[in-house]
Amino acid sequence: MTYSLAVLSSLLIPYAHSAPLAAAEPCTKEFLTSTANTYINSQRLGNTSSLPSIQASNFIYEENNVVKAIGSSSSLLTTALQIAHNRTIIDTTACATYTEIISTSPSPGHVVATQIRFSDNDGTLRPTLVDSIVTTQGDWLFNATKSLAIVQAEDWSPIPSTRSALLTAIDAYLDLWGNPSAPVPWGVPCRRMEGSAYTGSGLPTDSCNIGIPGGSQPPVTNRRYVVDEEAGSANVLCDFGAMRSGAPDSHEIRLEGGKLRFVHTLTVMRTGG
Ligand SMILES: *[C@@H]1O[C@H](CO)[C@@H](O)[C@H](O)[C@H]1NC(C)=O
Ligand SMILES: *[C@@H]1O[C@H](CO)[C@@H](O)[C@H](O)[C@H]1NC(C)=O
Ligand SMILES: *[C@@H]1O[C@H](CO)[C@@H](O)[C@H](O)[C@H]1NC(C)=O
């Protein structure tokens, strides 16, 4: 027997409107913000028991690109940190968050870049991946006290952009390694924080198109994206081979008027952890 399209539609529509078994919860800004705050509080306590992550059957925790148990003694989440700075961006399209954390205590401090990704688990949205780049003493230009002073003086209040502008800009910036003529939308003023080093001096003429390597460089690979069009910011966690093979790395950009205003970079130089 064959059905006309109209008959098929009348058969299918009731299912589309009743609650299907795998109904995805909407991935809202409020939900993402609240889970990111739960993550921050777990890090503050050094206790993951309130993170809903453990309940997702396929949950993965990655620290510096290495999979480990989130509750293990080598996981940063089992160390209580005083949190001097946090800032989260929200990606409702990818259903993901990115959080920047700076802690100066316990010494020598930590600067952490964490993406959380969610998917539907039997009708409930749960984190399936907590993906953290954790820097501390020994990492590229690390000094949490200096990083804290820098970020506290910057203005990251929301400045809307478009998803394509943010993706194009952050990809062009990362493409500089391997392609020095990548079309980066450089802005003026613009400042880059790398570890705790800061380009420019706070003048309206500051450019951040300085000290960018030319020539042949290992490309930036394994890029994972979080894009927040309302905030005007995008983050990529990646492997930054120009520093050392497979160096775990985080880059975040802020655009103003479609041009780069700030870049934050963390690169893990320690090996084996
Ligand atoms: C994040 O920092 C803000 C201040 O910028 C603070 O009000 C908020 O409580 C912090 N969030 C968490 C979860 O600690
Ligand atoms: C973590 O928090 C839970 C819930 O508050 C508590 O029962 C547990 O004892 C805490 N674990 C540690 C190691 O503090
Ligand atoms: C980090 O920077 C602060 C402020 O400039 C400085 O006082 C401190 O000695 C630095 N720490 C290290 C380990 O270099």
UniProtKB/TrEMBL annotation:
Keywords: Signal. Residues 161-267 form the DUF8021 domain. InterPro entries: DUF8021 (IPR058334). The keyword Signal applies. Pfam families: DUF8021. Residues 1-18 form the signal peptide. This is DUF8021 domain-containing protein. It comes from Amniculicola lignicola CBS 123094. The lineage of its organism: Eukaryota, Fungi, Dikarya, Ascomycota, Pezizomycotina.
